[in-house]
Every structure is written in structure tokens, then in C-alpha cells.
Amino acid sequence: MNQSEAWPFAIETIKQANHILILTGAGISASSGIPTFRDRGGLWNEFTPARFATWPGLLISLVLTPKKVVQFLIGVLEPIAQAKPNAAHNAIHKLEDVKKVTIVTQNIDRLHQRAGSTNVVELHGTLFEVIDIQSGQVSTLSAGELQNIVQGLHKLASQNYVLPKLLHTIQPLFSISLKGIRIPNVILFGQPLNTALYEAACIAASECDCMFVVGTSGTVFPAANLKHIAKQAGARVFEINPTHIIELNSTQTSTTIHLTGLAEQILPELVEKATQNKR
Ligand code: APR
Questions:
Q1: The domain that contains 223 carries what CATH number?
Q2: 112 is catalytic
Q3: Residue 188: CB within 6 Å of ligand 1?
Q4: Whose Cα sits closest to atom 5 in ligand 1?
Q5: What is the residue range of 225's domain?
Q6: Does the pTM of the predicted model rise above 0.85?
Q7: pLDDT mean across residues, the chain
Q8: How many structural domains comprise the chain?
Q9: For residues 272, 97, 123 and 186, what is the CA-based torsion angle, rounded to 10 degrees?
Q10: 270 and 211, same structural domain?
Q11: Which one of 37, 205, 214, 227 is CB 3.0 to 4.6 Å from 240, fit for a cystine?
């Protein structure tokens, strides 16, 4: 289907839909200033996931290359601490005025909620929470607290022998003490997803009439399975991305309809056209 056919089809599908599932990835937050992972200049180009996005790798890096960990943490925390929702997050929130919408996000930036969305499944957790690994108790962190950590990290960036100071600086986010071990409430590579959250995402995928896959390379599972679940249950699946993602398993299910371009441009226009005269 070409773009001039895909647009009216997407608009009509939204108008008819009772339940819309929106799966988002890093691309939806790119125009909020948060770099994606795998595009040029992305985080994983500079920092290998095995060393910086697994707990064993991160702990080894803390001991062997603490200054590189400082750079990594600045690269992750600073854009998220400063980001504000963009036109794409706002458009999704606007759609919720007229339709049942479930958002399943792989992002840890909380930007959907800050745009006003409430029905958000954070599959990979969030940087705005810290979890005590023994008790499972979760406490929240503010953007201001993240900013303070970033300021402390910048001070460390030019110093030597940073490990003890680094551990002190990131204490609100990561601490080991007699009171317990507290870590960011995010899922790193090699960790299982929260079962209840993944089940909620699967239920939404099997119940929705249509699904929009926005700004994700679809390389990380099990999130990337959701569109196959939706297709198998008969939903129409659209993808909003400036590049075409190569389909795995596409022979078994209907093809994905591409809306080629930036989420912050496509979503506001799509939602506007699909909800005209509805409010
Ligand atoms: N609008 C829409 N899509 C965009 C935009 C934009 N403005 N800018 C970039 N993209 C697309 C890219 O073309 C790419 O397909 O966003 C996608 C980003 O892909 P990744 O960097 O792989 O990010 P994501 O798919 O969210 O990664 C999944 O991998 O590293 C882990 O846990 C991390 O949640 C993350 C997961």
C-alpha cells in the first residue's frame, strides 16, 4: 500500500476502532531530545549493551572503567531529566478523549504520562522509580533529583579515582547498604519483564482493533512480538517510522501498513483528521 492509500486507510481505521493499541519506542521521544539506541549517534554505538546494559556488565564496568560509566550515565540520565513531551505524545493523549487507547511503551522516560496519558504499560520500567530488590518496594524520583545526579556526574567527569565518589553521587538511584539494595526500576538486557505488565500488553494486543507501532526498531523481544499477537487476533497494524523495518515472520500474518515519517509530524495530523467533528 502506498502512502496516499495508507493515510485515508489509517484515518478510517482509527474512526472505526473501539480499542487502539500504541506501542512506542525511542523514536517517539527523539524530538524531545532523547537519543535513540541504534540510529546513528545512538547510545549503543558508543556504549556496548553487554558492558553497559546488563547488570553483570555494568558492575564490571563500574570497577574497571568507572569514568566510562560516568559518561554512560550522563548520556542516559541527562536527556531524560530535561525532556518534555512532544507533539507525538500530546497527540496520543488527545486521541484518548475519543477512543479507548492502551499505550505500551519500551521507553523509560515517563513522557506519555507527563503528556497526560494514564493507561500506560511501561514494559521496560522507568528511570523515575527506584526499587528495593528484597522487599520489592518502589519509591519515586523526581526530574529534579535526576538533574542533581547529572550535575554531580558532570563534576566527576574530569576527576581521577572516581569510583567512591561515583557511588556517592548516584546514591538516590543505586545504593547498597545494611538497609538493602536499591536500583533503578528498569529492565536491563537479560532480565525478564514484569509478568503482570507483559500479560497486560499481550491482552491489549489480542483485544485491540488496530495497533500503531511508533518509533521502534522492533529488535527487542518480547515487545516486538506484540504486533504479531495483534495481527493473529485480526487487528490492523500500522507502523510510524522514518525508515521501513524489515518484517520477521511476515509471511505468516498480514503485512504492516507503513506511514513513513517522523512520529511528531505524523501523529498530530493523523489524530486531528481522525477525530474531526468528534469532540
Ligand atoms: N519518529 C519516529 N521514529 C523515529 C524517529 C522519529 N522522530 N526517530 C527515529 N525513529 C525510529 C528509528 O528509525 C528506529 O527504527 O525509532 C527507532 C528507534 O529504534 P531503537 O534505537 O532500536 O529504539 P527501540 O526500538 O525503542 O529499542 C528497544 O532496546 O536498547 C533497548 O531497552 C532499550 O527499550 C529499548 C529497546
A1: 3.40.50.1220
A2: no
A3: no
A4: 27
A5: 1-33+86-124+194-279
A6: yes
A7: 94
A8: 2
A9: 100
A10: yes
A11: 214
